[in-house]
Amino acid sequence: PLLLASQDGRVVAAVHAGRRGMLDGVVAATLDELERRGVGAGQLWAAIGPCICGQCYEVPEQMQAASLARESECGSRTRWGKLPREAI
């Protein structure tokens, strides 16, 4: 989860920004909506909730490729170097 609040406390938002949400632009859409409500990104406090790290999260190779095509910096390998699940 991503928690956002205006510095004056008038506006708050909780965003589920997992892999799918990130790729679907949920965070950007939330920031756009807050901007429409008069709160710019520079006026926000943000906190990132618990999440799984990329080195502990396995996905099929096709899903990784699709994610990297959208967000080139979101790729990683498991710390134990395991192959994607499709290869097993």
Automatic annotation (TrEMBL):
GO molecular function: copper ion binding; hydrolase activity; S-methyl-5-thioadenosine phosphorylase activity
Gene3D superfamilies listed in its UniProt record: CNF1/YfiH-like putative cysteine hydrolases
UniProt keyword terms in alphabetical order: Hydrolase, Metal-binding, Transferase, Zinc
Reactions listed under catalytic activity: inosine + phosphate = alpha-D-ribose 1-phosphate + hypoxanthine; adenosine + phosphate = alpha-D-ribose 1-phosphate + adenine; S-methyl-5'-thioadenosine + phosphate = 5-(methylsulfanyl)-alpha-D-ribose 1-phosphate + adenine; adenosine + H2O + H(+) = inosine + NH4(+)
Pfam families from the UniProt entry: Cu-oxidase_4
Assigned protein family: Belongs to the purine nucleoside phosphorylase YfiH/LACC1 family.
Protein name as catalogued: Protein of hypothetical function DUF152
Organism: human gut metagenome
